[in-house]
Amino acid sequence: GAAVKDGRVYIGDADGRFHCLDAATGKPLWAIATDAEINACANFYQDKVLVGSQDGSLTCLTAADGKPVWKYQIDDMVQSSPTIVEHFVFLAGCDSQLHVIDLDTGKAVNKLDIGGPTGNAAAVAGDQLFFGSQSNIVLGVDWKKPAIAWEFKSDGRKSPYQSSAAVVDGSVILGGRD
């Protein structure tokens, strides 16, 4: 998916390139290459843009020119859009871990085993993150500890959750493959 900020469109492609285009004209402004497909939306922090790739990387770039600021690597694909709260980015990956990364340094400040892979962006409400997994579970995570606060698994459910969560009026909403 595409992300838009300050008159620019940021979008990845199946060849692993991440592009910045002028939103009014479509003119290419800059691009960088990763080693695998990019299928998640980028997100923004201050004057930076963050993009995940199926090569297992989350890369922080200067939005104006695409210059690398830092790169965080996991042991499996990154298919989810990065979720940002305060100066942290949350990356729930196909490596079955929730990574809490300091946006200023690019270093992990915490990791949490989430019991299965996910390619879904997390929704946030206060100190809790919410997302579904390929293991057919919906998780509520206290991101400040980090610890799993609760999990929901429906009896008989055989299909994974593959949509990003949303929080509305105190309820967590997400769709599954079924």
Proportion in helices: under 10%
Task: Report strand %.
Answer: over 45%
* Strand arrangement across the biggest beta sheet: 1-2-3-4
Q: How many strands appear in the DSSP assignment? A: 18
What's the total helix number?
A: 0
Keywords, separated by commas or semicolons:
178 residues, four-stranded antiparallel sheet, 48% strand, globular
Structural description of this entry:
There is one protein chain. The protein has 178 residues and is mainly beta. Helix content is 0%, strand content 48%. The chain contains no helices and 18 strands. It has strands at 3-5, 8-12, 17-22, 28-33, 43-45, 48-52, 57-62, 68-73, 83-85, 88-92, 97-102, 108-113, 123-125, 128-132, 138-142, 147-152, 166-168, 171-173. The strands form 5 sheets. Strands 1-2-3-4 form a 4-stranded antiparallel β-sheet, with no helix packed on it. A 4-stranded antiparallel β-sheet has the order 5-6-7-8, with no helix packed on it. It starts with a strand and ends in a 5-residue tail after the last strand.
Q: How do the helices and strands line up, and which of them pair or pack?
A:
Elements: E1 3-5, E2 8-12, E3 17-22, E4 28-33, E5 43-45, E6 48-52, E7 57-62, E8 68-73, E9 83-85, E10 88-92, E11 97-102, E12 108-113, E13 123-125, E14 128-132, E15 138-142, E16 147-152, E17 166-168, E18 171-173
